[in-house]
Specification:
The chain has 65 residues and is α+β, with helices and mostly antiparallel strands. The chain contains one helix and five strands; from the N terminus they run E-E-E-E-H-E. The strands form two sheets. A three-stranded antiparallel beta sheet has the order 4-1-5, with helices on one face. A hairpin with a 5-residue loop joins strand 2 and strand 3. It is elongated.
Amino acid sequence: MVMANVKKDVEPVVQAEKRYKVKSPVENYCGIGASGVQFAYGEAIVNAGWVLEWYREHGFEIEEV
């Protein structure tokens, strides 16, 4: 296959990982959660993975950002 006019120094586009807002049951909580996540005013932003699942399993309210 011949590809004309293709730049070889262009980096591939990386899709951003989804992020989620975790809401603390303690209104306006500021501090570090059990998993090491920083909460500010009752909310924290986390990526998908074990941390998100931990909060989901423990009944925290979660929204996709």
